[in-house]
Amino acid sequence: MERIDCDVVIVGAGASGLTAATRLRDAGRSVVVLEARDRAGGRLWTDDVDGAMLEIGGQWVSPDQDALIETLDELGLETYPRYREGVNIYIGPDGELKRFEGEIFPVPPATEQEIVSLIDKLDALVAQIDPDRPWDHPRAKDLDEISFAHWLETQTDDEEARENIGMFIAGAMLTKPAHAFSALQALLMAASAGSFSNLVDADFILDRRVVGGLQQVPLLLAERLGGAVRLGQAVRTLRWHPDAPERGVVAVTDDLEVHAGHVILAVPPILISRISYDPPLPRRQQQLHQHLSMGFVIKVHAVYETPFWREAGLSGTAFSPYELVHEAYDNTNHEDPRGTLVGFVADEEADGVFSLSAEERKARILESMSHYYGEQALHPVVYYESDWGSEEWTRGAYAASFDMGGLARYGADLRTPVGPIHFSCSDMAGKGYQHVDGAIRVGREVADEILAAS
């Protein structure tokens, strides 16, 4: 077995791990990055599918994502705006299609009033939340012990208002049913984006894309690190010294032993327990990792000969908590004459369609999209489903979140180092939580912690 010695070994070649590795190397430390997959990027993945460039993983850039924008500038990557000219589509509980402009859906006046009131209430609560320390809120325990669905029920009797507000957190972000996560977890999600208003504003949260795909960020970082990045190296065992952390760690793969002073586990938290630890991690970490789980969403890509919806004056943006595809957007690539729509099927709806055959699932999903865009949506030239739930080294999407009560109980220790073991990923971010921006922020912070300690 090959032995490598370095200052810091990083497990995971996603944006967070590679950012940490780059910062450490630039400070003069030697690093090795071990990646289980045969590619760098983690949950960022741009691939060619039947001649179409598809961003199978994360893709959007928001104007408040300073860390990501700085990285794009450093790497010389260009962005372009998501297409949004024209009117949007909303389908209500009666199945009626309505066109609208702006952020508020075309619902009955009383429902609109309730939606605006809920947004105002959530914005007021979010303003009290520090996204880096949500458990410090005076009511954190109480807010973490009721589901977001129940909290909404205490605020309004209007079911359509509740369904729409719930959709932005449950279906669009955490990709879990609103009864499965707490009000505090929902507030963290909104606080990480600056406000709940930002989450309901698609023109803000889904502002721009990267020419050539967002996976170029980790690919270019990995390229700069050169031979320090070792692909196809799943870490099986981590040996460490709890009583003498200065003795460091040994990360063991099937082919390598990497001896280092520190290790950064830059993987989704649900994968931390996939590694065997000698000796085992402390009780606190063993427990908290059991209270985190990934969401589940299918990202559907449908490519057409032309962006036909634009001819009808549609932006491509569509919403409905009553449709199988609860949200969809124009996802046409930069300077591509073809048109691409991207839609999302989340949580329990995703469970349902995966009980069908592939052809039945495709037919059901395209039928739902046709309710927004018409009969032409049934006939894409390329069709692809991003199913991160079946990815061995991710096991869900978009990110991990705590179960009821878990955030207030365990959140403060989520990133606490254990001797020479450090933790870094977007799932652990405050600002930029579950986004590439958060991954970069945490990667920088963890690297700085190691530099300050050595």
UniProtKB/TrEMBL annotation:
InterPro entries: Amino_oxidase, FAD/NAD-bd_sf, Flavin_amine_oxidase, Flavin_MAO. FAD binds at residues 16, 35-36, 235. The keyword Oxidoreductase applies. Residues 16-451 form the Amine oxidase domain. Its cofactor is FAD. Pfam families: Amino_oxidase. One of its GO terms (molecular function) is oxidoreductase activity. Substrate binds at residue 344. Keywords: Oxidoreductase. It comes from the Bacteria. Belongs to the flavin monoamine oxidase family. This is Putrescine oxidase. It comes from Agromyces ramosus.
